[in-house]
Amino acid sequence: MHGYGPMPQQPTPSRPSPAALTTVRVILVAVTVLSCGLLGWVPMLRLAIVTRRARDWVLLVVVIALNIGLFAFIMATPDDPDEMSDAAALLMMLWIGGLLAGVITYYLYAEIRHYSALGAPAPYGAPSRPVPPLPYQQHLAPHQQHQPPNPYTAPATPSTPTPAPRRLDQVRAELDELSDYLRKENKDSRDGEGR
Length: 195
Prior knowledge:
Elements: H1 18-34, H2 41-51, H3 54-76, H4 86-119, H5 135-140, H6 164-194
Helix pairs in contact: 1-4, 1-6, 2-3, 2-4, 3-4
């Protein structure tokens, strides 16, 4: 090994199975809906951890602030619905509806887009990062490391990207599952109120 230590392996982000992703998405959307938006920060926290983008961390802070404001507003309103003014009730419903729609829509859009990009191959012509050779490869083929690329050689054939209809079908299937789940939850809550 000539004094070379083991090379540290960098973890590559792997794409979870579609079933696991769909299950997590349904659970997080259900948590958000069933809490009337008060737990809307939960899917945003997962999104920020998964994507590690500054924008998602900022949106997480915004959603937490909106949740705290909504909680304070709910606590300040009277318990008796007859004592609540129509303007306060309308404001609360708009706040809850906007929070639910915004969080759920952005979470599903950003996470589906993130995992689609992870699963898609690099576009043709995109420069790929060279992988450093392992220690035993360094002294086996040193002449290959210092050769400049030949501009007259034909480029390697690009791998065919995943067709868009397949990804769209996957997204459509996940949204159909989510829609069925939400319809079932809505029906169950109506049945509970009817009793």
